[in-house]
Amino acid sequence: MKIAEALKNKILKYAQEFNKELGHIEPLKIEASGRQYFRVTSKKNSYVISFDDRPINGQNVFINRANELAASNVRVPKIFEYDKANFFTILEDLGDHSLIDEKDFYQNEKFVVSSLKLLNQMHQSTHVDLHSTFWMGLESHTKKFSKIFCKEFLKIKMFKEYEDIFPDLRAEIMDQQWTNCHFDFERRNIQIINNSELVLLDFQDLCHGPIGIDLAGILIDHYIPLDLDTLKKYCNSFAEISIYDISTEEVFRSTLWGGLQRNLRIMGTLTELYLNFNRSFRMNDLPQIVSNTVLLSMELNQVKLANFLLEDVSENLEKELLKI
Fold first, then answer.
1. Tens digit of pLDDT for each residue in 204-251?
2. Which of 110, 189, 226, 235 is the most exposed place for a label (fewest CB within 10 A)?
């Protein structure tokens, strides 16, 4: 608490050097990455200040990516000032309305298609030093599910054939269209302003990666039950607008495999944050992620994985979540 209060005071002092009328500060959120946000206000003005002292994909990368995206006509928060020594960035205050607040998101075709158009714009953005090491983490990402989520948290054994998934997954991910990849293109990271304009957030992990990861991020939700017919509908919408010559069938398959890889990684990552840092704020999302992963597995003919999730994971997860 003392550390948090000291950080708030330091941020407010920094903000007042930018605008002396700013007198109120409130914490907004802590991202899974550890990035922290605060809102500072006066009677006339409001800004968001981020604090991110991570040595990898931290403040400097965020600033560079923001400038590159803006130069490519991708709407991102405006940066007013930054302090490299103290890891502070003063950003445009976009309010508190993100797509996560849209309860009937997939019934609102306008917002879903607008999100896909935003993704397509990001695919066209130009960047310097955009790394392409996603392939190196494919297997380790997926093993987070078995090692951290299943073994360390649920304390259950994996089915023997789990390792057999990797060759198929690696081939399907590597063979799809590769492009600019946000890595977490989901509703939490897309803000709505002026009732309709979408703004992209938290893009510091942007990399060169498979197109299915971000399509899965927006079309296979962690908080809403997956509906395959709806997914196919919006895969067709994306195929029609994409800068790439890619069919509806290719988009659908890329999204399914991207979703499977993403979900296995996310289940391990959220659990790791809880076990190592006691960050439990996303653990309640796990049952829906498991349920959606069952559907993905069945559609991709990964029947043993689907049965393992239904018979072993779901029952033990319910018990463990009651202890948190």
1. 999 999 999 999 999 999 999 999 999 999 999 999 999 999 999 999
2. 110
3-state secondary structure 282-323: CHHHHHHHHHHHHHHHHHCCCHHHHHHHHHHHHHHHHHHHHH
- Each residue of 131-149: pLDDT tens digit? 877 777 787 888 899 999 9
Burial state string for 42-54 with b = 16 or more CB within 10 A and e = fewer than 16? eeeeebbbbbbee
Domains of the chain: 2-92 (3.30.200.20), 99-323 (3.90.1200.10)
